[in-house]
Amino acid sequence: MNGQELSKKEFNNFYLETDKIRELIINGQVDGLGEKLEISNLANFEDLKNVFAIDKVDFNNKTTHTHAHPYFYLTPSKNVLELTIPGMRILERRNGEDFERAKYYFVIQTDVEFNWDKHRIDFKNGKLITDESKIEEWWLGQYKNYMTEVRKVLDKFGYKPPPPASPPANLK
């Protein structure tokens, strides 16, 4: 993944733009989130709306242990990073396990691209995962390489990622 031409300053712009997305999540502004990430036309977007409207989940709340923390992976494309934001509630440890599991409400994945011509940051190829089995597949596909991949972003841009995502509650 050596094709990145982004400077730390440009990465900071990525981070600031991503923080706006995190704020939309924290404030339950689902329509704004859908518009910004171009995911409101996805078949499961209504599931995301229900997380806020029906389940009334309050993200980044230390009392309820709900979190939606972004992290990045480098990509082979110039000036493009992959952004992932899992929305979850950390559960208490089970007897016999030395780790916490999580109830996942959603996982958002999108490409974040620095558009040199327009000097702006664009979000492309947004995916929204809400199905429990698909979230388990996502988790299994990323957990082994999480530290290796986020360390590349840390080394290149100085961005400290959140801790690895906890395993889904019902994962066997």
Number of strands: 5
Q: Report the uncertain regions.
A: none
Strand residue content: 15-25%
Shape, principal axes of CA atoms = globular
Largest sheet: 5 strands, antiparallel
Radius of gyration: 16 Å
What count of domains describes the coordinates? 1
Helix and strand sequence: HHHEEEEEHH
- Residue share in helices? 25-40%
Question: Helical segment tally?
Answer: 5
Mean pLDDT: 91
Termini separation comes to 32 Å
Computed structural class: alpha+beta
SSE inventory with pairings:
Blueprint: H1 8-26, H2 30-37, H3 45-53, E1 66-68, E2 71-74, E3 80-90, E4 102-115, E5 120-129, H4 132-142, H5 146-157
Antiparallel strand pairs: 1-3, 2-3, 3-4, 4-5
Describe the structure in your own words:
- The structure is a single chain.
- By secondary structure, this protein is of the alpha+beta class.
- The protein has one domain.
- It contains five helices and five strands.
- Strands 1, 2, 3, 4 and 5 form a five-stranded antiparallel β-sheet that branches.
- The longest helix has 19 residues, at about 10-25.
- It starts with 7 loop residues before the first helix and ends in a 15-residue tail after the last helix.
- The model has no long low-confidence stretch (mean pLDDT about 90).
Structural key phrases:
single chain; 5 strands; alpha+beta; 34% helix; 172 residues; 5-stranded antiparallel beta sheet
